[in-house]
Amino acid sequence: MTSTMGQVRTGGAGVPEGAAPEGNEESGGPSIETFDPRTGALLAIVPDQSAAEVRAAVARARAAFGPWSALTYKERSRHLLEVRDRLLDRAEELVGVICAETGKQRAEAVTTELMAVCETMDWYAKHGERILRPQHVPSGTLAHKSAWKRYEPMGVIGVISPWNYPFTLSMTPIVTALFAGNTVVLKPSEVTPTVGLAIGQLFADDTWGDLVQVVTGGGATGEALVRGGVDKVTFTGSVRTGKRVMAAAADSLTPVLLELGGKDPMVVLEDADVAHAARGAVWGSMQNAGQTCMSVERVYVAEPVYDEFVARVLAEVATIRQDDSGQGDIGAMTFEPQVEIVQRHLADAVAKGATVLAGGTRTDRDGLWFPPTVVVDVDHSMDLMTEETFGPVLPIMKVRDAEEAVRLANDSPYGLNSSVWTEDDDRGVQIANRLQAGNVCINDCIVSYAVTGLPFGGVKSSGIGRVHGAEGLREMSNVKSVLGRRLKVPRELWWFPVPKHLDAVGIATLRARFGTDLRTKLGRSRRS
Ligand code: NAD
After folding, report:
1. Which of 99, 293, 441, 445 is catalytic?
2. How many CA atoms lie within 13 Å of 161's alpha carbon, on the beta-carbon side?
């Protein structure tokens, strides 16, 4: 049992012991450093792994595929629930690792990382077999045939994950792939590699130790995985990298699942519960320091309730506890270049006439601290309203009515999540149906992701394919269509020699079977 895990050199709080020291540190190979964003302190040094190491990891996962894919769903499920027990045994340790590398608060790590994964495993254990077992389909005119489809494992799945939810966005594709009978090579973000190593350890400490291989490194390691002979790539990250992944995968026609960025709109109608909507907007834009693909990134508020909404948002923002206690509301941001994007978007907006009502400038202390920020007088000429900001920033725009709100909400290349807020539930559904997004919440935001039965993913530039739900499980499977026989016949009608008058019989059959009125069915002209 081996897995490609480099040893971390400098252990910060909660950083896992590397399981299998593999050279780069000892051999002087290239390495990457990871930092605690709360303080800027060096956290760990891990190997920047080469294409050869990636191929070796794929080969190990390939060797594990045969026996694992031969298990029944129940056997796989039982095993995954053992992994979940291990996860629960190590919950405090995992929360420590996640918080040290991302800067998020402990409760955020528990709910959005550990709980989300446990829920997903639970859902597959309860519903997965029903979704993936063979299913009969009607055989139409070929009534003497029996038709069914079966879902088969694909092989080795390459999982490439981002830094904002490094645990759940690695584990969700991993457990989905494993349940469907595949094995996995994970390439975690170079910003959060120790979380990836901790995931690898969950699987390595096991009789089935080779199911999940972990390779650490940056973009080149990720590209090596895409080109490394895997049977599918599931990528979660930015639109820019997603395009690169798809282009690299095209060389070998490797299928891709892309979960990309968003610029999620929130629509507040004049009949909304304004206090409720304001609290939702603040939570939806600030939780995880705004670094959520489904964050509320722009709000459109109907004119009659705009002033009250802004006032309530400001009151709510003033109560946010942002600190490094681990027990506050939000923590530090995770990645220095993301802080720079936030600053660039704010500077662009202010230069074009926006007004900052709260926050707006980086906090003067070590680490990646940016305060909750509220901006008004915004419009679609500003990057803040059109590009993904991914920070604790809430831009609010006044609109005339629902029509203008829907038009502006849809005026985006993205389409990940979205929300509409109204006390009229029917109206909420009508507006929700018109929002161009893969997901929509009515009188809430973001949390649709927490319902594992709901497929999650984007439209437009926000992605291709779905995780979660029946669609997510089937994404990790090849569907095989099978045609068998219901009745044995001496020969098929269309076999050679083609019977005389088959054309005339064929037309009569077509009319009888597909004609929608009696005259057509009987072959009588409707013009006569
Ligand atoms: P990123 O695109 O910079 O990196 C994502 C991963 O891709 C990392 O592991 C990185 O090392 C790897 N990578 C980089 N270049 C590569 C290449 N050429 N080939 C293969 N892999 C490569 O994204 P990020 O900054 O880590 O994450 C933030 C982004 O992710 C945001 O845009 C956010 O909206 C998006 N995101 C989307 C979802 C979703 O479910 N739709 C969820 C979370 C985050």
Report:
1. 293
2. 29
Fold of 7-43+65-134+142-260+470-478: Aldehyde Dehydrogenase; Chain A, domain 1 (3.40.605)
Q: Which atom of ligand 1 is nearest to the CA of 467?
A: 40
293 tagged catalytic = yes
Centre of ligand 1 to C-alpha 434, Å, is 28
For the chain, 528 residues long, give each residue's pLDDT as a single digit of tens: 334 444 444 444 444 444 333 434 444 579 999 999 999 999 999 999 999 999 999 999 999 999 999 999 999 999 999 999 999 999 999 999 999 999 999 999 999 999 999 999 999 999 999 999 999 999 999 999 999 999 999 999 999 999 999 999 999 999 999 999 999 999 999 999 999 999 999 999 988 989 999 999 999 999 999 999 999 999 999 999 999 999 999 999 999 999 999 999 999 999 999 999 999 999 999 999 999 999 999 999 999 999 999 999 999 999 999 999 999 999 999 999 999 999 999 999 999 999 999 999 999 999 999 999 999 999 999 999 999 999 999 999 999 999 999 999 999 999 999 999 999 999 999 999 999 999 999 999 999 999 999 999 999 999 999 999 999 999 999 999 999 999 999 999 999 999 999 999 999 999 999 999 999 999 987 665
Every domain of the chain with CATH number 3.40.605.10 lies at 7-43+65-134+142-260+470-478
Domain(s) labelled CATH 3.40.309.10 in the chain stretch across: 265-451
- Check residue 463 and give left, alpha or beta (phi > 0: left; psi -120 to 50: alpha): left
**Among the residues of 36-109, which ranges form H helices?**
51-69, 73-89, 91-102, 106-108
Provide the whole-model pTM: 0.95
Burial of 235 (0-12, 13-18, 19+ CB in 10 A): buried
142 Cβ neighbours under 8 A, 6+ residues apart: 483
Tokens 């291990």 correspond to what residue?
Answer: 86
What superfamily does domain 265-451 belong to in CATH? Aldehyde Dehydrogenase; Chain A, domain 2 (3.40.309.10)
One-letter identity of residue 517? D
C-alpha pair distances (Å), 115 with each of 108, 171, 185, 325: 10, 11, 23, 21
Q: For ligand 1, what atom is nearest to the CA of residue 240?
A: 2
ω into 372 cis (within 30 of 0): no
**Residue 341, ligand 1, Cβ within 6 A:** no
